[in-house]
Amino acid sequence: MIGKSVALSLLLVTLVCARNAQAGVLDDAAERYRPYAIEGIGSALSGARDLRARVAAKDLSGARKAWLSARAGWERSEVFTAGFVPELDALIDAWPNADSGFHTIEAKLFGAGQTDVEADTDALVRNLDELHGKLRNMALPPQGLLDGTVRLAYEIGESKADGGEARISGTSLEDMRNNLAGVEFAYRTVFEGALKAADAGLAESVTRRIEQLKTIVAARDLPHVDVRALRRSSEELVVALQAASVKLGLRRPTLEAQSR
């Protein structure tokens, strides 16, 4: 009886040690995501500053190009924005009821053909600059990054396939591509190595679904995107990543952003 108790205790200790070691591996991997986050928001900030200059010069064509550039950097970063900085996310990228940020500016530049967005552009630069400054010391827990990866993978198939947020500027397909680039980078940088060690078959399943999505969004324009295949592959990726959470010792992600 005593021997069985000792064996059980040793097993529990072994399991706890293994779980702690896995957590350490993921924490280290999450730090490797930080430069990507800094670069993405830095790119958005650079584009927003150029946008401000173009707006001041009443250069509509240049302002539109700068908006598109800023938008690309933001879309690559959405793995972490809603969950880690919800207040700034709401100021920068609120939709559909936007009274600030990208979509307020988009409506005037692309919809009305106007450049009277000085105050909105100043606010966008200010908010992106604040976020860029926070990123060097912001905690990046693996759970939060997995939650954001799953949420964004779902969003690609469900809210952007029919035109999504950027109907006025017509960038929804490019948004999906940038979102997917963010999803892929987060997965490969933070989770793929640990998942391969725990369940190589499941890791391959995640990779296969990412590649399927990349093929789908490589369509030449939005009308040529196979929407049914997009939604199916998006949902399959979500399910695979949710299954991966168990193997990684993390909680099962939900589809709602959780503040960190």
What descriptive keywords fit this protein?
mainly alpha; Imelysin-like_EfeO/Algp7; 10 helices; 260 residues; A middle domain of Talin 1; signal
Textual characterization of the structure:
This protein has 260 residues and is mainly alpha-helical. It folds into two domains: 28-140, A middle domain of Talin 1 (Up-down Bundle); 141-252, A middle domain of Talin 1 (Up-down Bundle), CATH 1.20.1420.20. The chain contains ten helices and no strands. The protein has helices at 2-56, 60-76, 78-84, 86-93, 102-112, 118-134, 142-158, 172-198, 200-216, 227-247. Helix 2 packs parallel to helix 8. It is globular and about 80 Å long. InterPro entries: EfeM/EfeO_iron_uptake, Imelysin-like, Imelysin-like_EfeO/Algp7, Imelysin_sf. Residues 31-98, 100-220 form the Imelysin-like domain. This is Imelysin.
Task: Briefly summarize what is shown.
The chain has ten helices and no strands. The protein has helices at 2-56, 60-76, 78-84, 86-93, 102-112, 118-134, 142-158, 172-198, 200-216, 227-247.
Question: How are the elements arranged and paired?
Answer:
Elements: H1 2-56, H2 60-76, H3 78-84, H4 86-93, H5 102-112, H6 118-134, H7 142-158, H8 172-198, H9 200-216, H10 227-247
* Major beta sheet summary: none
- Number of alpha- plus pi-helical segments: 10
> How many β strands by DSSP?
0
Gap from first CA to last CA? 46 Å
CATH architecture of the largest domain: Up-down Bundle
Total separate domains: 2
Report the β-strand fraction as a percent range.
under 5%
Using only C-alpha atoms, the radius of gyration works out to: 21 Å
CATH evolutionary superfamily of the largest domain: M75 peptidase, HXXE motif
CATH topology of the largest domain: A middle domain of Talin 1
Q: How much helix, percentage-wise, in residues?
A: over 70%
User: What is the element string, with H for helices and E for strands?
Assistant: HHHHHHHHHH
CATH class of the largest domain: Mainly Alpha
- What would you call the structural class? mainly alpha
Average residue-wise pLDDT: 90
- Low-confidence runs (pLDDT<50, min 5 residues)? 7-18
Shape: globular
Main location: other
Organism: Bradyrhizobium erythrophlei
Signal peptide: 1-23
Domain Imelysin-like: 31-98, 100-220
